[in-house]
Amino acid sequence: MRSDIEVGIVGTGSMAVRHLESWRALGVEPVVWSPRSAADFAATYGARTASSFADLLAGAQLLDVTSPTLTHPEYVLAAVEAGTDVVCEKPLARTGAAADALVEAARNAKVMLYPAHVVRAMSPWAHARDDIHAGRIGTVLSASFTRIGEGPDAPWFHDHAASGGAVMDLLIHDLDVAEWMLGRIVRVSGTEESDPVRRRHLARLVLEHESGLVSTIDGGWTGRPRPFHAGFAIGGSAGSLNWPLVEAGSSDPTSAIPGENPYTRQLRDALAVREGAVPAVAAEDGARAVHLAEAALRAVRTGAVCPTS
Known about the structure:
By secondary structure, this protein is α/β, with parallel strands linked by helices. It folds into 2 domains: 7-118, Rossmann fold; 119-259 and 282-307, 2-Layer Sandwich (Dihydrodipicolinate Reductase, domain 2), CATH 3.30.360. 37% of the residues lie in helices and 27% in strands. It is built from 11 helices and 13 strands. It has helices at 14-25, 38-45, 53-58, 72-81, 96-109, 123-133, 160-163, 165-169, 172-182, 262-274, 283-302; strands at 7-10, 31-33, 48-49, 62-65, 85-89, 113-116, 140-149, 185-195, 200-209, 214-221, 228-236, 239-248, 306-307. The strands form 2 sheets. It has a 7-stranded mixed sheet. It has a 6-stranded parallel sheet with strand order 3-2-1-4-5-6, sandwiched between helices. Strand 2 (31-33), helix 2 (38-45) and strand 3 form a beta-alpha-beta unit. The radius of gyration is 19 Å and the shape is globular.
């Protein structure tokens, strides 16, 4: 059990719950603050609370940002200016330019900025990457990723100016791991079906990698009750890798993932980075994922093939 680090969590949504549970699994009891609902969150989950963001930050050695996307820059920059390490839920920011500014600020201040791209901590994806990079399936010839669910309830997610919709908030996971597993993505094209009133945002993305490989991503928010599914299929000249569309419980989309809870695994990694370890997800990776999602949004809105940088 760890009791030697003070963690402050900003936000009280579903990601705050996941992070709170995982910090506790690591022996840390965080303090939580939100401008609206910290008292209700505390009553439900038995969490300690701060009376203000200033008080939260003053007592924290690490700030864990799980608040809505548009608020990320404000909280991350405040922590960086205070010399406090940061874990920030994806996306780091709503735009690539804003994400780049956070990375630069953290670098200049010599403060850890750890993007919480939890799929990299999920064992099927991590093992598949290891197999690909070790050459165990030969040359990769095809790859597809799927991630689809009912979608979140909070209205801000369905204001695409605030969230980027399912492409920026959900499929950013697959954009990140597609590049992580298969190499740099240079162009993206695609189509979308978008109806914010029905809370529906589905997309099909076609990714062109620097190697010449073409991969695809399908998924998003259906706007109707359904279990969460995610998976991949990767074919190589000497074998294949598949994680089928495993149905996960709607209350915990990670319930079908074997091994250590991936939220706990990523926070364990963040603690190790504070002590000098190489991060599983670098700050620059988080910013790059935002740029990839921006390119994908341009592609589905314009019908063009869009470069990623």
